[in-house]
Design goal:
- The complex is a heterodimer of chains A (251) and B (269).
- Helix content of chain A is 87%, strand content 0%.
- With 251 residues, chain A is mainly alpha-helical.
- In chain A, α1 crosses α5.
- Chain A is elongated.
- The longest helix of chain B has 18 residues.
- Classes of the chains: A mainly alpha (251), B alpha/beta (269).
- Chains A and B meet through α4 of A and α2 and α3 of B.
Chain lengths: 251, 269
């Protein structure tokens, strides 16, 4: 009976061992700055178009849906504050993280998985390089730096998308919408909106690296690792956002 | 008696409880060569990876240059690995790096080597010239054929002029002509640098090239080591079967063996 739990428990243990080794490697030399910048470009700049699209249309959809409910109470003027709060606290970080997980957790897992099955990871170790230092650390640092930036951009374009709906379809004035949105947000919202992507970034990069580095079974194994990385990272994003939201609501 | 460079003492390595190599013991003195024969999944590659500490034994001890590496820390192990070159199966070149960067990798990344930056290019070029691929510096591995990638792998394994070179199935998947060219390069490396060589292979004729031929620097080609077909001294065969070492001896003993498994290698080729 206990054998059923053996494999998942072992996986969790291996994941935390990888996480621990990676965190310990962060202050240690060498830092492989070129790899960090390359990953920042891949993860940050590469994800920008899709993040802009997702953020913009989620703002539009939110304004449309909210306006319908708010009209019932004669509170259409509250569209700006509601779009801003929901986007900055919840939807912006989660949607951006899901998009980045889909794009980059899979990318990281497949890249590292391919390296694993073609023995490039072993070759790296044999040639005097720690794969954690060379492969995992740059991806962790790059994701932690880029995801909060992408989230802030997604939040902003989302609020802009909401503004277009508010101005053209709900007949709100520019100042009504933007003043409402600006006044609705306080520092706790901003903090929550930036803490979440930072934590999600740790999850996305480490989950991608974890599944990539434990890939086995040739190209089929690479495909399996990629799928697992996206699914597990996405699930953890939803679980963690609930926990973090609870903590910030209690503040 | 020469110092031992690699010694296995009753080594067992398992994956999920299934032994990949079991109770393996052997000793390789400095300057000698070993050819490890075995069918697929007999534990040959695991043996090489265990020899350089990429895999840790469940039981037994591995000695590299006289030092027990079984419980060694990564950093200490890394310094020892700098004295070993390894050609992985399928070469294991880094896809994202050019050929020059691939061959320069051990020079730039191994702490104990500390090759001055201004020397790196010259050494890479020299190493690639040795395998006749000095014109591929700017290319990526994906632009080369399988045989050329294997030759780059040999250049990378030897660029640091290691004391021991390990070759994991250097001719696997290659056509006979390319395979013979690869073997000629391995013999050339062995004879020019006098390094201890351990080669894993499924092909007995690869071992025969190692035992019967020498590199002649004057004619710059391989020639028979002796007129009567005798083997070069100091080269022995190891045969692996289902993770166990079932034979260790000279070529003549291998050829005389009546063991059905061992004799298959000799008769088949």
């Amino acid at each position: 009976m206990l054998d059923i739990f053996k494999s998942p428990v072992l996986s969790i243990q291996e994941f935390f061992l990888l996480a621990g080794r990676t965190f310990r490697s962060v202050p240690r030399r060498p830092h492989y700055l070129n790899d960090i910048f390359l990953q920042m470009d891949t993860i940050g700049v590469g994800s920008l178009p899709i993040v802009l699209l997702t953020g913009f249309f989620s703002g539009i959809v939110m304004a449309l849906q909210m306006s319908k409910a708010l009209r019932t109470y004669g509170a259409v003027s509250q569209t700006g504050p509601i779009v801003a709060i929901v986007l900055v606290r919840e939807m912006g970080p989660v949607l951006t993280a899901i998009v980045v997980a889909g794009r980059n957790a899979s990318g990281i897992a497949s890249e590292l998985g391919s390296m694993k099955v073609t023995e490039q990871i072993d070759a790296m170790r044999a040639l005097g390089t720690d794969p954690i230092q060379k492969l995992v650390k740059p991806r962790l640092i790059a994701t932690c730096l880029m995801l909060p930036c992408l989230t802030a951009i997604a939040d902003f374009v989302g609020i802009c998308g909401g503004y277009l709906i508010a101005y053209f379809l709900l007949s709100l004035t520019t100042s009504e919408y933007w003043n409402g949105a600006y006044r609705a947000l306080d520092y706790v919202d901003m903090t929550e909106g930036l803490v979440k992507p930072f934590i999600f970034a740790i999850v996305i990069s480490l989950v991608g690296c974890f599944y990539g580095l434990r890939t086995s079974g040739g190209t089929q194994g690479v495909g399996r690792a990629t799928t697992q990385a996206v699914v597990v990272a996405s699930v953890w994003i939803f679980v963690l956002t609930a926990f973090i939201a609870k903590i910030f609501i209690a503040l | 008696m020469p110092d031992s460079v690699l010694r296995f003492e009753r080594v067992t390595v398992s994956f999920d409880g299934n032994p990949a190599i079991e109770d393996v013991s052997f000793d390789i003195p400095a300057g000698e060569s070993r050819i490890v024969l075995g069918a697929a999944a007999s534990g040959k590659s695991v043996l090489l990876k265990t020899a350089i500490g990429l895999l840790r034994p469940d039981h037994g001890r591995v000695f590299l240059f006289g030092q027990d590496i079984t419980g060694l820390k990564v950093r200490e192990l890394s310094d020892l690995r700098a004295r070993i070159g390894m050609l992985f199966q399928e070469s294991a070149l880094f896809d994202s790096l050019t050929i020059e960067e691939n061959v320069a990798y051990p020079l730039e990344n191994q702490r104990s080597i500390r090759c001055p930056a201004e020397e790196v290019h010259a050494r890479v070029e020299e190493s690639l010239r040795f395998v006749e691929l000095e014109h591929t510096l700017e290319k990526f591995p994906s632009e080369l054929s399988g045989g050329m990638r294997r030759r780059v792998g040999i250049a990378r394994a030897n660029v640091t002029e290691p004391d021991v070179v390990l070759y994991d199935s250097p001719t696997a998947g290659l056509d006979p002509i390319t395979a013979n060219n690869i073997m000629a390069l391995i013999v050339k490396e062995r004879d020019v640098r006098k390094a201890t060589t351990v080669m894993v292979t499924q092909r007995f004729q690869d071992g025969q090239i190692m035992t019967k031929y020498r590199y002649d620097p004057r004619s710059q080609s391989l020639e028979r080591a002796s007129g009567n077909g005798a083997s070069i001294a100091g080269i022995r065969f190891l045969v692996m079967k289902e993770g166990r070492l079932v034979f260790e001896g000279a070529e003549e003993e291998l050829e005389k063996s009546t063991d059905p498994y061992i004799s298959k290698f000799v008769l088949r080729h």
